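Lab meeting, action items carried over

1. Structure of the two-component assembly. Owner: GW. Status: complete.
Input record:
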Amino acid sequence: MKVVGCRLSVVRKTRVALALALVFAVNVFAATPDMPRFRWENFTTANGLPDNHVFTVLVDGDRIWAATENGLGLYENGKWRIFTTADGLAHRAVLSLALDKRTGDVWAGTMGGLSRISAGRIDTFNQLNSGLSNDVVYGVAVQGDYVWTATAAGASRYNTRTGQWSLFNERNTPMYEIWTYAVTVGPDKVYYAVWGAGVLEYDIKTEHWKDYNDPDGETEIVLFKDQGLIHEITTSVSYVDGILWVATYFGDSRYDGRNWHNFLTKDSGLPSNFTNQVKALDANRAWFSTDKGLAYYDGTNWAVYRPNLKTGAPEMYVRDAEGSITNIAVDTAPAHNYTLAVDFQGDDIWVATAKGLSHGIRQK
Amino acid sequence: MRVRSQALGIFAAAAVMLGLLVFAGSAKAKPESDEAHYLSPREMALSLDGRWLYVMCEASDEVRVMDTQSGAVMKTVAVGHVPRGIALSPDGKKLYVANSWDDTASEIDTASLKVVRTLTTGFEPNGLALDGENKTLYVANRLSNDVSVIDLSSGQEIKRLAAGRGASYLTPSPDGKLLYCTHIYPKIGAHRTPPESEITIIDTQRQIVVDRKRLHNVAGVFHTAVSGDGKLVVSAQLRPHNLVPLAHVEHGWAFSDSLAIFGDDVNGVVQAPIDELERYFAMPYAVAITPDKTKLYVGSSGSETVSVIDIRKMLAYVRKTNVPIANDLSASANYVVGRIPVGRNPKGLLISRDGKRLFVANRLDDSIAVIDTANDVVVSSIDLGGKKDMTSLRRGERLFYTARFAFQGQFSCANCHIDSTFDGLQWDLEPDGFGVDIVDNRSIEDLGGTEPFKWNGGNPNMATECGPRTEKFFYRSQSFNSAELADLVTYVMALPYRPNRYRLAGGELTPMQERGKAIFERTRTKNGTPIPQANQCAYCHSGPKYTNTKLADVGSGKPTDRSPLIDVPQLPNVAYSPPYLHDGSAKSMEEIWTVFNPHDTHGVTNDLQKDELNDLIEYLRTL
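Predicted assembly:
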C-alpha cells in the first residue's frame, strides 16, 4: 500500500522543497476523490436491537428492518419492535429480507422457512407445509407476483396469486450445486449466486436458465483476470441497470453482458476478497460488504469504512484510480469491520455487521 | 326489546305518514325478462339520486334495475356466472358486479345499462369497492384469499393484496380512503385451537394493507358498515364454539351471532352479541348504519330477521363495560331495541340516502323488503319476478338456509356450509364424549356417487346424513318431515362443482401436472419396488370422483378416534378446502405427506424428492 504524504522525498534546497511541497499538496488535495462521508450511529442490543449478529438489513421508507440471529427487528419512529417465532416468524434466525414495493409486504428468509410480514400479520411457508424447497432460506427477492428464494436445496419460486410453487435445481437447470446463496431480480432477469457453482441467470421472457462459472476452472487461481466470473464460490448478486455484480469469497465481478471485470484486493480498493455482499447503486457504483470493512466503489475510486483492524479506531480511507490512498479523519465508524449487507435510505446507508447495525448518516 | 309487528294497520299508518304508499304490499313488479329462473337477489346498490335500485341476482346471473318510486323492475342486465357482489362508482356512472364463477367483474354503464367492459379478477371474486377518486376497483377474491387492485383506466389488475382466507366483502369508508375487507374462512392455525380472523384495512391512496384488526375466536365475517363520520365500523361475524362437543347445543354452544365493533368511537375491537339468552339470530350477514348514526341494522340470514340496534346505547354500553361481552348473551338487551321479521334468507341491506327506508334482499323469496326506519316495520315487499313454481330444489335450498328448525334457532345447515361450501373448521359432533372423533368439515359439492357419508362412513345416504342425525345431534327436536327431508337431499345432492382454476382451459395438463399424474398412478417406487395395490393413490382414489367409497386405514387415525378406518374422501376441487385429513390436522396438502405419512401408509411418498411431491400436489389441484 502506498500512502500519500509518506512518499515525499527529501530535497536539499529548502526553497525548492517548500515550493514543491506546496504544489504537491495542492495537487494531492485536488486529486483526492470526493467520496461519501458519514457519521455512523450504531445499534446493538444495548439500544434495542434484538441481536448483535445482523445478517441483513432492509430499508422500507422510514422503517428499517434488521434480520438478526435472534429475531426480526423493525426500527420505526425511534423505537425497535421485535418479531419472533411467538409472532409466527418461521425461525428466530433471519437470513434474508425483501420488500414487495407494490404491496408493502416484507418477505423474510430464515433458517426455518419463509415468512411474509404483511401489516403485522405473519404467514409462514416451510418445507413441510408448503412447496418451498428447503427451510434454510439464504436469499429472497420479489419479482412482480413471484417470490424467489435461494435455499440450501435449490431455488424456489412462489406464485402469490395462485399459491403454486416451482422448484429449480440440478434436474431442471445447470445448477450443479444446489446450495443457492442469494438471489436478485431485474425487469428481465433473475440471478442466483450458487455456492460452488457460480451464477445462474433466468431469463424471464424465455424462461431459460444459463450458468456463468469461473472459466479457468481453478477455484483458487486466477489465470486471466477478466476472462469471466472471478470465482465459483459466489455469495451475492446484484443486478442494476443491466449490469450484474457478483460477490465471492475470492474477489468480486462486474458483468455488462459482454465483458467481465473483476476486483481483487491486489488491484482494487477492496479491503478483502472475502465479500459477503455486493449491492449496486447503478451501472457503475456499488457497495461491498467484506470481512475487513465496508467498501464503496464509484466506478473509479474506492472508499473503505471500518473500525481499524488493529486499534478499532474509526477509519476511512480513499483509493484513487492510480492506487494512491488517502486517510480521511473520521470520528465514527460502522459497528464492526465484519460487514454482511447494506441497504440505502436516500443518501444514508444502513449496514449489517457482526456486532450490530450501523446507520451511516451522510455528511457530504 | 320489542318485536315489531307487521300488522297491516301499522303498515298503512306508517306509509301514509311517510308518503311511502308507492311500496304498497300489493304492488307487483313486472319484470322485463321471463320467469323461467329463480333470481336469488343477494346484494344491492342505489343510484346517486336514489331513483334506481340495482339488485344483483345470484341465481339468474343478472342485475335487475328497480324504480324505487314505482317498485317496478325496469331493466335486466345480464352479467357473468354466479354474481356475488355489486358496487356503484362514486360518480354514479358505472356499476361493477363480481362474477364469482367467471373470475371477472362486469362494468356496467348506468346510463345505457349495458356491460361495457369485463375485467379479470382473482379466483372467485365476491365483494368489490372503489376508491374515492373513481380510479381503482378493488375486488375481494374468495379462493385466492386476496384483493385484486384494478386500474380502471387500463382495466388491468395491477397487483394483489393479501387478505384473510376466503376474502369476500369490501366496504369503503365514507371518503373512500380506506377499505375494510372481511373473510369467511378462518386462518389455518394450529390444530384444535380457537379460530382467528381479521378485518383487513386497505389504504386506497397507497394501495397497500395498512392494518389488520384481529378477531379472536371468530370464523366467518361478513359485511361491514361504516358511519357517515367514519368513526364507527361494524362487521357481522360468527363465533363458532367448535372446540366443545356439539352435544352442548342446548347450552348455546354452537355459534354466537355477533358484531365486531371498532373505530374511533370505541377502544380497540369489541365483540358484541346480537343473540339473547335462549334465542338466537343466526348467520348475521349484512349491516347498515343510518345516516344520522342513530341506528344499526343487522340482517340474520338464517333467522330471517333484521335486528335494530340503538347505536347510542350500544356505544354507551361497550364503553362502560370493562369485561369482554362476546359470550354474554344478556348483553344484547342493552342495545338491541327491535327485531323485524323479513323474508327468507335475507342477504344485502341498503339504506336509502335520506335514511328513511331500509331495503332487504330476501334471497330465497326473490323479493325486496322495504322497512320504514322511523317505525322499523316492513311496509312493503317488492316482487322482483322470477320463477314462481316451487321446485323440490328450491324448497330444499330454503331448508338448507333457515335456522328455524334448530334448537332455539341457533343455526342452519349454512352455518357450517357457508354459501353451500364449508367453514374451514373442525367439529366435535359426536354426543358420546369430549374430544372423540374430531372431524373436519368437508366440501359438499357434487356428492352423488361418493356415499357413504361421514368420515367414518356411518351414513349410507344423504337422507340419513341430514335426517335422524340432525334431529338427534344438532337440532334437539323434530327435524325435517319426510317431504322436507327429500327436498333438502335434492338440494344438497344437486350442488355443483365450482370451476377448477388449476386446469388449463383446454383440459390438458402442464408438464408439472403430467409428472404429478404419473406419480398418482404409479405402481412402483422409484427404485422399481412394486407398491401394493391398496397403497397406490389411484386405488383408493379411483373412479370419477376419485373415491372408491370404502373405508381405509391410512395411518392418520388419532388416539381419540374410535376407529382408524376413514372414509376415502372424494378429491375434486380438493385444493379449495384445507385443512386436510379427517380431523383437519394437516394444514396443507403438503403436510398430508411431509408430516402425517412417516411410514408410507397413506400412499408411498417417502421416496419422492420435494419437487416430485410438488408435482403430485399440482396434479391433485386439477382434479
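2. GW to write a short summary for the group page. Key points so far: The domain at 511-620 of chain B is CATH 1.10.760.10 (Cytochrome Bc1 Complex; Chain D, domain 2). The longest helix of chain B spans residues 482-493.
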